[in-house]
Write a structure and sequence with these properties.
By secondary structure, this protein is α+β, with helices and mostly antiparallel strands. The protein has 15 helices and seven strands.
Length: 408
C-alpha cells in the first residue's frame, strides 16, 4: 500500500532536483558578480530636484537589473486625494541599465555608479532580499519623503547586508535640518521654495542625525565614498563610474536666505495697497484695482491656508504644528466677498472690521513664533506683516470713504 506513495515522492524529488540543476534555475540562483549604487543627479521637474538612486546588479554573462524604489503613479484626482491623505504608495520596480541610461540621458540628468566591495555571500544575500522585496505582494510601501524614500531604502538594504556596519560608521549630527536641506535644493525655484517653506511644520526644524540626513541620494553617495568594509578597513566603494554627465550647475551648499527679499516684496506690496486705498476716494479705478487685488489675495491665500490646515491633520507628520497657517489663514477667503464689494464702492468696512484686524493679528502671532526656536518663519513674517498692514490701511481708507458716501 505504501509503494505507490514512495514512488510518487521519489518522482517529485527527481523533478525538483532536475529543476534545481537545470541551467535556467542555476542561473536564477547565481549571485551577481558586481553590485553598484546608482546616484542620479537633479532634474527640472519638482519631483526630481532632490536626485534619485537605485541598486544595480550585474552578472558575468552581460545580464543586469536595476532595482528602483522610486516608482510611483499619480492618477489624477485619486492620486491627489491619496497624497493629501498621506497614503501615497511607491513600489520597487526592476528595470535594465540600458533603459535607465536612456531615460536619464533624455532628462539631462547625471548618473554615477559606485561599485561596492561585497563578498559573494553578501552579493547573493542582497540579490535574494531585493528579489523577494520586488515580488508583487511585497513591492509596495507607504512613501515618506524624509523617513522612507528611495534613498533610505537603498541605505537600509546595504546596511542589512553589512550587518549594521554602515550605520555604526555614520555618526554625529547632520549639517542641516530637514527644512534647510529642502530649501537648499529648491532655492532656485522661487514659487516652489515658498510653497514648501509654507507647508513644512516645526518637526522639520529639529536637528537630525547624519544617518537621517542620508534621505538625500547625494548625501548617501558621499557617505558611501568614505565608508569602510567591516573588519578589514578597506574602502566599501571599490570603483566609481560616470555613466552620464549633465551640464547642470552643482546644487547649492547652503539654503538661500530670503528674509530681506521677502521683506522688500512685502513692503512694496503693502505700500502699493495703501496707496490704492488713499487714491480710491478720488479715482474709481484705484478702488476697483484695490478690490480686485483684495479678492485675489483672499482667494489665493485663503486656499493656501485651507490646504495647510488639511495637511496639519493628515498623516504628513512634516506638515504638523505649522504656524505658517497664521500668515495665510483659511478665513482670508472672506476677503473675496469684501474685495468685490470694495471694488463696487459698497459699504463693507464695519461688517469686516474684526476679520481685517484678525488678519493683521495672525501675522503678528506668526512673528512671535519666529523668535522662538526651533521654528524659523521670520521670512514669512517679513513678507506678510507689511503686506497685511498696508492692505489693512488701504482697505480702511477706501472702506471708510465708501461708508461716508453711502450714508450721504
Amino acid at each position: 500500500m505504501q509503494s505507490p506513495r514512495i514512488s510518487s515522492w521519489g518522482a517529485l524529488v527527481w523533478v525538483l532536483l532536475a529543476l534545481l540543476l537545470s541551467p535556467r534555475a542555476a542561473q536564477a540562483l547565481e549571485a551577481p558578480t558586481r553590485v553598484s549604487v546608482l546616484t542620479m543627479g537633479p532634474g527640472d521637474h519638482p519631483f526630481t530636484r532632490f536626485g534619485h538612486n537605485a541598486i544595480l546588479l550585474e552578472w558575468a554573462d552581460g545580464r543586469d537589473a536595476v532595482y528602483n524604489y522610486g516608482t510611483f503613479e499619480f492618477n489624477g484626482l485619486e492620486g491627489a486625494r491619496d497624497f493629501m491623505g498621506g497614503r501615497f504608495r511607491y513600489w520597487l520596480s526592476v528595470g535594465t541599465l540600458d533603459a535607465t541610461r536612456r531615460a536619464y540621458g533624455a532628462a539631462r540628468r547625471s548618473l554615477v555608479a559606485q561599485e561596492l566591495a561585497l563578498t559573494t555571500d553578501e552579493r547573493a544575500q542582497l540579490f535574494e532580499a531585493l528579489a523577494e522585496n520586488a515580488r508583487p505582494d511585497n513591492r509596495y510601501y507607504a512613501y515618506d519623503y524624509y523617513r522612507d524614500n528611495c534613498s533610505t531604502r537603498v541605505r537600509d538594504a546595504l546596511d542589512a547586508v553589512l550587518g549594521g556596519a554602515l550605520e555604526r560608521q555614520v555618526t554625529g549630527t547632520g549639517r542641516f535640518t530637514y527644512r534647510q536641506h529642502t530649501l537648499r535644493l529648491v532655492g532656485q525655484a522661487s514659487l516652489l521654495y515658498f510653497g514648501l517653506d509654507s507647508a513644512l511644520g516645526r518637526p522639520t526644524d529639529r536637528p537630525i542625525s547624519r544617518w537621517q540626513e542620508l534621505f538625500l541620494p547625494r548625501e548617501l553617495q558621499e557617505e558611501l565614498s568614505h565608508a569602510k568594509r567591516p573588519g578589514s578597513g578597506q574602502p566599501l566603494v571599490s570603483a566609481e563610474r560616470l555613466l552620464l554627465a549633465a551640464p547642470r550647475p552643482p546644487s547649492p551648499s547652503f539654503p538661500p536666505e530670503r528674509t530681506l527679499p521677502y521683506l522688500a516684496l512685502g513692503s512694496t506690496l503693502g505700500l502699493a495697497l495703501a496707496g490704492l486705498g488713499i487714491a480710491a476716494p478720488r479715482y474709481p479705478a484705484a478702488r476697483a484695482v484695490l478690490g480686485a487685488v483684495t479678492a485675489l489675495l483672499g482667494f489665493v491665500l485663503g486656499l493656501l491656508g485651507c490646504a495647510l490646515l488639511v495637511f496639519a491633520f493628515s498623516k504628513h507628520w512634516a506638515a504638523h504644528d505649522n504656524p505658517s497657517v497664521l500668515a495665510s489663514p483659511p478665513w482670508a477667503l472672506g476677503l473675496v466677498w469684501y474685495g468685490v464689494r470694495l471694488a463696487r464702492g459698497q459699504r463693507s468696512w464695519p461688517a469686516l472690521g474684526a476679520l481685517l484686524a484678525a488678519s493683521l493679528l495672525t501675522s503678528t502671532a506668526l512673528f512671535g513664533f519666529a523668535v522662538s526656536p526651533p521654528h524659523e518663519p521670520l521670512r514669512q513674517a517679513a513678507l506678510f506683516l507689511p503686506l497685511w498692514a498696508g492692505w489693512l490701511y488701504g482697505a480702511w481708507r477706501a472702506g471708510s470713504k465708501a461708508r461716508i458716501e453711502s450714508s450721504n
